[in-house]
Specification:
By secondary structure, the chain is an alpha/beta fold. The protein has 12 helices and 14 strands. It folds into 2 domains: 229 residues, 3-Layer(aba) Sandwich (Aspartate Aminotransferase, domain 2); 135 residues, Aspartate Aminotransferase, domain 1 (Alpha-Beta Complex). Helix content is 38%, strand content 13%. The strands form 4 sheets. A 7-stranded mixed sheet has the order 1-9-8-5-4-2-3, with helices on both faces. Helix 1 packs across helix 7, helix 2 runs parallel beside helix 7 and helix 3 crosses helix 4. The protein binds pyridoxal-5'-phosphate (PLP). Pyridoxal-5'-phosphate binds next to helix 3 and helix 4.
């Protein structure tokens, strides 16, 4: 059995250290915010090459509060992509603003920055590029467009802890960067967690207040805020895990490189990584037009896979009110129908990679000139 992710293996590798850190929080009764969260905010912001970090309860809340700090509200428009996890779009919706979509670049699965300018209207306030699967968006041209039109850029870096674009860390390039510490993310809490990182003291001040009932000091509520605080235990766990993140990322990259080379020259479209990025492979997604058959065949061999994501947000029932139709974002729609995420986690062994790649190659159509795979033709 090769699982899609293995959180247990990672926990066992750091068990004593994590348990001691949790015990420390219990001993000090610092259950929400507190010294571990404050230390983690500093350490994670520095890791992201940003000046400030504000810990919150989820990645969704990080996006929501970053938008509010940017002044986004009813009547405004925020540009993002439909090929993302629904939370990116929900966060826009929470503010009362309208999500406006642009399609993805089919090679990278991330925002087609060339499509952004045509989507800007007088109501546009912000852009949310999503560093999907752990690969940064082509940020330089996007930042240039944002500067030209006076728009705020909020990076959805929820899948991109430690990813780099031309040597700059994900989360540090726009006005604010948002991270999730959901357990399955590259840096995962033992519960929920999130953070906004930024170089702007004003955004920092506003988000610090908004996450804690809009209070400037206790019971002095200057903003209509929320209870979006990060728990003390999560801060302690994340501080321990941050020390290991680069090693884990290199293990992901090694597994991805192994998959790449095993499937090179085959008919399987493997992920394209831009030459100017450090892709952190939160997910390793191939494409296939026979996804369901492949997923079932792999599972029958004990190989778990995932689909991220089966429906682009503009076609989800929850966002039907936006009025988008099928066919409006063809690259997103095609990606949603073809992507298949292979097992990817730092503890994945070379032998497991080999087994997965061999199973995929056995399903794949032969490249032109090679003998036909008749077994598969029967299965689909
Ligand atoms: C996980 C994720 C989020 C939301 O993070 P939560 O911590 O689950 O709220 C937002 N955007 C993307 C791209 C994500 O992968």
């Amino acid at each position: 059995m090769i699982p899609f992710v293995d959180l247990k293996a990672q926990y066992l590798s750091i068990k004593d250290e994590v348990n001691a850190a949790i015990q420390g929080v219990l001993d000090r009764c610092e259950f929400t915010l507190g010294s571990e969260v404050a230390a983690f905010e500093k350490e994670f912001a520095a890791y992201c090459q940003a000046e400030h970090g504000i810990g919150v309860n989820t990645g969704t809340s990080a996006l929501h509060l970053a938008l509010l700090a940017a002044g986004v509200g009813p009547g405004d428009e925020v540009i993002t992509v439909p090929f993302t996890f629904v939370a990116t779009v929900s966060a826009i919706d929470y503010t009362g603003a309208r999500p406006v979509f642009v399609d993805i670049d089919p090679r990278t699965f991330t925002m087609d920055v060339n499509a952004v300018e045509a989507a800007i209207t007088p109501r546009t306030k912000a852009i949310i590029p999503v560093h999907l699967y752990g690969q940064p968006v082509d940020m330089d041209p996007l930042l240039e467009i944002a500067r030209k039109h006076g728009l705020i850029v909020i990076e959805d870096a929820c899948q991109a802890h430690g990813a780099e674009y031309k040597g700059r860390r994900a989360g540090s390039m726009g006005d604010m960067g948002c991270f999730s510490f959901y357990p399955g993310k590259n840096l995962g809490a033992y519960g929920e967690g999130g953070m906004v990182v930024t170089n702007h003291p004003e955004f920092t001040r506003t988000i610090r207040m908004l996450r804690d009932w809009g209070a400037e000091k206790k019971y002095h509520h200057v903003l209509k805020g929320y209870n979006f605080r990060l728990e003390g235990i999560q801060g302690a766990v994340l501080r321990v895990k941050l020390k290991y993140l680069d090693g884990w990322t290199e293990a992901r990259r090694a597994a991805a490189a192994r998959y790449d080379s095993l499937m090179a020259g085959s008919s399987v479209p493997t992920p394209f990584a831009r030459a100017d990025v450090r892709h952190v492979y939160h997910l390793y997604a191939i494409r296939t037009r026979h996804r369901q058959a492949w997923q079932e065949a792999l599972l029958a061999q004990g190989i778990q896979t995932g689909i991220h994501y089966p429906t682009p947000v503009h076609l989800l029932p929850a966002f039907a009110d936006l009025g988008y139709q099928p066919g409006q974002f063809p690259h997103s729609e095609q990606a949603a129908s073809e992507v298949l995420s292979l097992p990817m986690f730092p503890e994945l062994t070379a032998a497991q990679c080999d087994q997965v790649a061999q199973a995929v190659l056995a399903l794949a159509e032969p490249v032109a000139g090679a003998p036909a795979n008749t077994a598969l033709a029967g299965a689909i």
